[in-house]
Amino acid sequence: MASASEEDITKVKTHLRNNNIKLWLPPYSDEQGRPQHESITNIVSEISEKTSLPQDLVSSCVTNLHQHSVQRLRKMQQNIVSLRIKCSQTQGSNTESVEVSLAVSGVQLKTIIAEKLGIEDDLKLICGGRIIENDASLQSQRIRNNNIILCLVVKASDRNQSKEVEKALNEVKRARQGAELLAKAGVDDDGSAGGYDIEIEDQNGQALEIPAEEKRSLTIALGLHEKGRAILKRKEYELALLLLLEADKEFETCRSEILSMVDNYAVLCLDIVWCYVCSKNIAALPDAKLRLDSCEKAFKKSYGDSLQRLLAIKGSSGSEITMFVRLYVLQAILHYHDENYQECSLLLDKAQGFAKMVAVDQDKVSDLMGLGLSAREARRALRQNNMNVTLASQWAFKQREENQETKKREKERRRKRKMQKEFGSCANGDPVNIESYHHLVDTMGFDPGLAVEALKHANNAMSDAIEMISNDPDTLRLSREENQSRNKPKQTAAARLKAMGFDEATAKACLHHFSGAMEEAAEYLANATGEIPAEWVEAYRGNLDQEGSSKYTEDELVMMREVAQDVTQKHDEYLDVMLDEEKGLIQQYRAMLLSIAQH
Q: Which of 51, 73, 250, 407 could form a disulfide with 221 if both were Cys (CB 3.0 to 4.6 A apart)?
């Protein structure tokens, strides 16, 4: 009998799905999952007739599908999941798989993975950017089927450095938490609360309108990427790789057309491959080739084959050339290990030529620094202006002015957002119009409190708001007092519960559940020894958009600010590289090519 093709199997599956036939349930299986042959035979005949496939072929397909469905059901009932294992030392396209019960602890999973991979050293396991705790079950740590487990191997000889490893892993964990909080907060007030509305721009510098869920993923990806780059600068390649791969996972949830509009994903691929090369991870070369191909396509789409599009957009291709230097160096290294020495040599020539184009004269840098520019500003300005000091100085100071204007606009946007948070929403749910508020207060001289209440009652209709202030100010005052008295006890109660020894975030979530009732919240926390249901916390978090920064603990605020500063204050910093490492690799591989030619 000929084996079933993919097309044949698809036909059988489609028939089962369209007719809502579940092989793991009666009448096709008994309670123990054993096949009921009469029902199976009937369905085989029916499928064979409908699809014109031979009965013996259909019977084989249905038998295999029945076995797989019953096995899958048993695993689900037993809480057994399949996990994909990637070891940071051998990162590449291939992964190992293990099947475990969610009831096992983190330390038991370590033992299973160590035996699977044949590793005697200690392991640190990371899933979704979070360190897997030793004593807690996998289920309590939200491990799911098909999750990727990243393994960091701690050599026996390095055990004395385990505290440093733990510290670094906690940095990874905090970066992930900060990025997630940052994305969930969504918008910024005055910066003190840590909620930032990250603006995503295309290659033209124009802000992109992106759906909320994709913007969330991009915000997390950008935060993790920048933290990974910070670790990469310290030459801690394995730890950097963990963060960069987590960023990669977030980018992959976005549509390809969104990724094609920005450079960030291409730069991330470049950074991942740089980690592979610097950590001498030869096993990762297949994955590296795919990433560099993707990176090159993205760069060419953004800047053109000869950077002509970049010249048209920005007037110069200076700083961006540094990315191409690294790209060509990495491609040359891959070709060398594929024994394609001629292509390797051509790419090294190309990389060296581009590196010379952006080589910076230190005397010119000193001249510009004498005018008040930083070394970084001076290097970028020279590269953007073909090393012309006069043009570079003009460009740099113009950039400063533009950056200051951007900061002013951002500060004003944050100010308005903070005011809208403080004012609350209108009756129809819209935020208070700040321009209308200023007109009522600054131009017409109305009381600020009355102006806010009037706009809220009138849904921002100016004429109705003016009429209410003029004709019924007492009602507005009463409404304002009620709002103030309703909000004030929450803040006071939270402080009192914290003083009683309860966790700040838990206390606030409990108060939110009891609508600010201090006595009820305190009684519940006392009886529950400070623990509350997870859904209370989620409901509390879901109310963030309508509440102020008091929703965050101090540690959460710090984590968000750390990530936000990396994302918002390092614009284009990835372009300011000295290329010393790239030049060193060019020399190294030229020497290796020469050695091969001589033999």
A: 250
Where residue 112 sits, what CATH number does that domain have? 3.10.20.90
Does residue 117 sit in the same domain as residue 63? Answer: no
Report the pLDDT value the prediction gives residue 315, as an integer from 0 to 100.
45
CA distances from 415 to 246, 407, 421 (A): 33, 12, 10
Does residue 94 share a domain with residue 57?
A: no
DSSP-based three-state secondary structure for 80: strand
Cα angle 495, 498, 504; round to 5: 100
> CA triplet 105, 111, 117: central angle to 5 degrees?
135
Q: Is the dihedral of CA 135, 137, 141, 147 positive or negative?
A: positive
Domain boundary among 77, 109, 127: 77
Total domains, the chain: 3
pLDDT digits (tens, 9 = 90+) for 171-194: 767 777 777 777 776 544 434 333
| Parts of the chain with a pLDDT under 70 | 1-2, 75-78, 88-95, 128-131, 154-169, 172, 185-210, 256-258, 260-262, 282-283, 304-319, 484-492, 542-552, 564-576, 599
The two tokens of residue 158 are 């390095």
Let me know if residue 526 belongs to a domain. Answer: no
Predicted TM-score of the model (pTM) = 0.58
- Contact indicator for 39, 28 with CB cutoff of 8 Å: yes
Q: Name 40's Cβ contacts closer than 8 Å, sequence gap at least 6.
A: 23, 28, 59, 62, 63, 66
Residue type, 483: N
Provide the sign of the torsion angle of the four alpha carbons 111, 114, 116, 120, taken in this order. Answer: negative
Residue range of the domain that includes 126: 80-154
Residues 206 and 278 in one domain: yes
| Within a domain: 393 | no
Reading the block at residue 206, the tokens are 């124009």
Residues 6+ apart with CB under 8 A from 225: 243, 244, 247, 264, 267, 268, 271
**Domain boundary, last residue among 127, 154, 181:** 154
Indicate whether 91 belongs to any domain: yes
Q: What residue has token string 């033992």?
A: 111
Q: Is position 497 within any domain?
A: no
